[in-house]
Amino acid sequence: MNSSLFRRLLGSALLSSLLLPLSSAVSPRTEDAAAWRASWHTPTGWSMRPVQGPKPDPAVLAQFGLYNNAKLQSLIDTKGQQMNKVSDRPGDYGFTIVDSPVINAFATPDGHVYFTRGIMAYFNNEAQFAGVLGHELGHITARHGQKQQTRSTVAGIGMLLGSIVAPRIMQSVGGVAQQVVGLGLLKYGRDAENEADGLGVKYSTKIGYDASYMADFFQTLQRTEEQTGAGGIPTFLSTHPNSADRYTRVKGLAAQARQQVGNAKLNVNRDSYLRSIEGLPFGEDPRQGFVEGGAFYHPDLKFRLPVPSGWKTQNSPEQFQMAEPNGKALIVFLGTAGSSLNEAAQGLAKQLGMQSANAQSTTINGFPALAFEGDQITQDQSGQQAVGAHVLTYLIQDGKSIFAIVGLTAPSTFSAYAPTFSSVAQGYARLTDASKLNRQVEKVHIKSVKTSTTLSSALAANGVASARREEMAILNGMKLTDKLPAGSLFKVVGK
Question: Per UniProt, which keywords does this protein have (predicted)?
Fold first, then answer.
């Protein structure tokens, strides 16, 4: 299987790391190849985390997943290390592509640069890729992350718990907000962004690329924002503040850099880059689970789970989360460790800090199951014990896998949400609908034109529906009326 939510069997250590300020833990592996497996350490602040450097952070990979593409990973490794050697502060840095559809690139203060597969789809040449890579490396070499860290201006990278669940529930489950913030991206101010832009131009030019194309990529991001509206703003723009004069400024810096290298050839490498992303997954991968018509479907593990009406959802590589829209309750679905339901229940209750958790055996749609309920005991600032959330958990044994459906809310509202927790668990069922089982991810495909034509005509000739042509124009960094000379390559998206 690919790097999906349910490829790993995360024991109760994962949930506890999100819900409780516990020490790091590693869950044992299971023999079920379809289940989760991963190690996890508690996502505390970056300043408290070990320096990862050339190794990707397990917490980042647990949230996004690793994108396994040797060709693209080699590209980011090679270009990143070339830039590292010519940078202002060479170091033991690392570069990784993660399996996320969001359009983003970010650098963490521990010396690692991450690109999503989503942003890789929107680059149209190596020069754009190199410019953004230099920009992110610039954040590291200029130590912007460490400066932001000191000012405690950390923003979440989109985890549901940090952006949807209201503060009272985050407090009731032991400081979820603070835990999740530890995985966050750093929002940079205008001065830091301008400096990183300059370093991106400098570093990409030094390794032989035309940095003016970095400015073109910022325009692509702006067009994506305009097409989707404010609610769909690319993550890159939410963490890297944009400005009206950024395009002009970067173009000017690139022109100055070109003058400094004299007659040296600066590369763009459009065709080679486009060929390298042939078959790149585009958008959400339904094989990793998707929500549709009030249910969560997982084609690879062949199960379905109901989603309460109006609740917010987020699917990540290690769990599926559902949150009541006002932040009053949360349901988390994930894999857990244990050779039996009783063993899994004991371990999960311990990790959750639950006391007097009464367990009861049951069945759910033919699957052996166990339910237990109790208070989560936390410590307040004075060190005194207090009741956090009230938790209702169902464990379901599906073959060799044991899945947990954890519902939690404040004790005062438990009676209101307990029926919802139960109905979600009781709705766990085998997925048999062929239309859901056979759902496939869209992929980027590279096409060429035999004769000169417009992009609009080329898209139409390749079966792109009119409703998606503007989206494809943005993906290509072009306008629909732009001319494609004979032999030109361009992108389309399809199965």
Answer: Hydrolase, Metal-binding, Metalloprotease, Protease, Signal, Zinc
